[in-house]
Design brief:
The chain has helices spanning 28-36, 46-49, 80-92, 102-110, 132-135, 194-203, 205-211, 215-242; strands spanning 2-4, 7-11, 15-20, 40-45, 61-64, 96-100, 115-116, 122-130, 146-153, 156-157, 164-168, 176-179, 183-186, 249-251. Helix content is 33%, strand content 26%.
Length: 258
C-alpha cells in the first residue's frame, strides 16, 4: 500500500491498448517489457473487425503496430481516420503513445505531418544513427550513437511540427521521434526480436522473397551476425518506453468510511 496526501491508494495494473493492423504482427520485446511491469494488454485486431477503443479513459497507454497498408489507405481500411484521431487524443491527454513502423506513420499523420509512400524501402537488420537529442532522450539514451535493429518498410514521413528527431538513417531521415513527454514513433521494428522474425520468415516467406531476394537463404548468417545486438537494443527501448507509462491511482476508502 502507498500513501498520497496522507490517504492510502493502490496502483492498478497499467492497461495498454494494442492496435494490430495486420495479422500475426507480434509484440516480441515489447511483450517482455510489459510483462515485467505487470501490464494488462487489450488487443484490438482492426484488420479483422475494425473495432477500436471507444475512448481513452480505459487505458493508460496506446500502441499502434505495423502493417502492409499505408497510413493513407482509408478506402481499404475504413477505421484509419478514427485511429488517427484516437492516437492524437491519447497524446493530447498526456498518455504514453507508441507507433511502430506503420504506427509511426499514422502517428505522424495524426500530428499534421506528410506521409511519403514507396520512397524509403528498407528490409532486414540495419544500423541506425542516434541524434544528439536522441542520446539525451529516455527512449534511446542507453544505446550510444548507433545501434542495429530490424527494418521492414517502404514508406516514410515528414517530421511533425514540434516533434524531436531522435534517430535517423540514410534511407529514412525520421527513424524515431518524440512529441511531448511520452508520444513516440519508431520507423524501425525494435519489438521484432529473433523469435518474431522467425515467425515473420515463415508467415510471409513469399513477400520477403519478392522484396529482398536472397535474404531467406542468408537468414541464418545474418541472424548470427546481427540478431543478438538487435534483440538487446530492442529490449532496452521497450523497457524505456514502458517506464514512461503513468498508471492510475485508486484511492482506498478507510473502514471507518466504508
Amino acid at each position: 500500500m502507498v500513501f498520497s496526501r496522507g490517504r492510502p491508494y493502490q496502483e492498478e495494473p497499467m492497461r495498454v491498448a494494442v492496435i494490430e493492423n495486420m495479422r500475426n504482427t507480434g509484440l516480441g520485446a515489447l511483450a517482455a517489457a510489459l510483462d515485467e511491469a505487470g501490464a494488462e494488454i487489450e488487443w484490438f485486431r482492426v484488420w479483422q473487425d475494425g473495432v477500436l477503443p471507444k475512448d481513452i479513459s480505459g487505458h493508460d497507454a496506446l500502441v499502434v503496430l505495423g502493417g502492409e497498408q499505408s497510413a493513407l489507405d482509408d478506402e481499404a481500411n475504413s477505421y484509419l481516420p478514427e485511429l488517427v484521431r484516437l492516437t492524437r487524443r491519447f497524446g493530447d491527454a498526456g498518455k504514453a503513445v507508441l507507433g511502430i513502423c506503420l504506427g509511426s506513420q499514422i502517428l505522424a499523420r495524426a500530428y499534421g505531418a506528410d506521409n511519403h509512400l514507396g520512397i524509403a524501402r528498407e528490409f532486414g537488420w540495419h544500423g541506425i544513427g542516434v541524434t544528439a537529442e536522441g542520446r539525451a532522450d529516455p527512449l534511446l539514451s542507453a544505446l550510444g550513437g548507433e545501434f542495429t535493429i530490424f527494418e521492414w518498410h517502404a514508406d516514410t514521413f515528414s517530421l511533425p511540427e514540434g516533434a524531436v528527431r531522435l534517430a535517423s538513417s540514410p534511407v529514412a531521415e525520421n527513424q524515431a521521434f518524440r512529441i511531448g513527454r511520452a508520444v513516440y514513433g519508431t520507423q524501425f521494428h525494435f519489438e521484432a526480436n529473433a523469435a518474431v522474425i522467425e515467425q515473420w520468415k515463415a508467415e510471409f516467406a513469399d513477400t520477403i522473397a519478392r522484396i529482398a531476394p536472397g535474404w531467406l537463404e542468408n537468414h541464418a548468417e545474418l541472424a548470427a551476425r546481427h540478431a543478438g545486438a538487435a534483440d538487446a537494443a530492442g529490449l532496452a527501448i521497450a523497457r524505456a518506453w514502458v517506464g514512461l507509462i503513468e498508471r492510475k491511482e485508486v484511492e482506498m476508502l478507510s473502514q471507518a468510511s466504508a
